[in-house]
Specification:
It is built from six helices and seven strands. The protein is α/β, with parallel strands linked by helices and 316 residues long. The strands form two sheets. A five-stranded mixed sheet has the order 3-2-1-4-5, with helices on both faces. A two-stranded antiparallel sheet has the order 6-7. Helix 2 links the parallel strand 1 and strand 2 (115-121). The chain is elongated. The two termini are 28 Å apart.
Length: 316
């Protein structure tokens, strides 16, 4: 065989090895999605109990008459935008979509005459915004396995910023996990809270399943937890208003942890899809190269036969 056929054969081996790597990366991401799913389910009992007790307290007191900073709306002159991206790439447009959305939100606020600043979670977002003239309050890494300690550090930064009067509202931008092939960049107001939203907001959980050898996701909508019922003659050792104020940081911590987990699940699902596409493309490329290799080998053999026939004819 000539050098061209050998070069094609070597490239086929390279493509096949690449396909093995991308397939393995897809399976690793699938395993991590299942772990993220288990983490979400593990936090459900705490969040349900917190929501139930909060709802029970709200029904006993008039929150509008309480002076609770985290429930008080302010005139918005400055907005802190919390942006969650990933620490790694190879996940399609997961990071770029969120970065573009966060940048567009900052420019929108600027046009309205409202100051903005960022709290960045994830190395990809940090790397992008640090190279540009945007105000950054603080940065955090977004690990593949977020925990309560990580969420607590972020929520403390948010609370300290808001309670010190250095910002008037805090917006959270994260990627909502929809399915293995779809994630939606989402945003919502994180602080100040709305008592009605806390007591009435439902939840949803997802579970990774294998249907016919293919990965799929099943989602389950959960209604808001029923408010806890307290006896009319129950005497609270602490003022109910103070209890509500003390529960709000716990609620914020839970919300941060949940969105971190959902963002990680979205990143892993995007990586699964990206690696699946890479594996499919590698398979198609290998088929094309095999066809080229067979043609090159056939041409080489045909040329050798012609040389032999020509040599034999010359000797006659």
């Amino acid at each position: 065989m000539d050098g061209k056929a050998n070069a094609i054969r070597d490239r086929i081996k390279t493509v096949q090895n690449t396909k093995k790597i991308t397939t393995a990366m897809k399976l690793v991401a699938a395993a991590k999605v299942r772990r993220a799913q288990d983490a979400v389910l593990a936090t459900r009992p705490f969040s349900e109990t917190l929501q139930s007790i909060f709802g029970g307290l709200v029904t006993r007191i008039d929150t509008d008459s309480l002076d609770i900073p985290l429930l008080t709306q302010r005139d918005v002159k400055k907005v802190t935008i919390v942006v969650i991206t990933g620490d790694r790439g190879l996940c399609g447009g997961y990071n770029s979509f969120m970065i573009k959305k966060a940048e567009a939100r900052y420019l929108e606020l600027e046009k309205q005459g409202i100051k903005g600043e960022f709290i960045l979670i994830g190395k990809k977002g940090v790397s992008y915004f640090k190279r540009r003239p945007y105000p950054i309050r603080s940065t955090f890494d977004c690990t593949q396995n977020p925990d309560a300690k990580q969420a607590l550090a972020i929520s403390d930064e948010i609370l300290n910023t808001y309670l010190a009067g250095e910002t008037d509202t805090v917006e959270l931008m994260y990627t909502k996990f929809v399915s293995l092939i779809a994630s939606v960049p989402s945003s919502r107001t994180l602080v100040p809270f709305s008592a009605t939203e806390i007591t009435e907001k439902g939840d949803e959980v997802f579970s990774l399943t294998s249907d016919g050898g293919n990965f799929s996701v099943e989602r389950e909508e959960l209604e808001a937890a029923e408010p806890a019922e307290f006896e009319e003659d129950m005497i609270f050792e602490q003022d109910p208003g103070e209890m509500v104020e003390g529960m709000l940081p716990l609620y914020l911590n839970g919300q941060i942890l949940r969105t971190l987990q959902e963002s990680v699940a979205s990143e892993l699902a995007a990586r699964m899809q990206s690696m699946q596409s890479a594996s499919d493309n590698a398979g198609e490329l290998a088929k094309t190269l095999n066809t080229q290799y067979n043609r090159a080998r056939q041409a080489s053999v045909t040329a050798e036969i012609l040389e032999i026939v020509s040599g034999a004819a010359a000797l006659e």
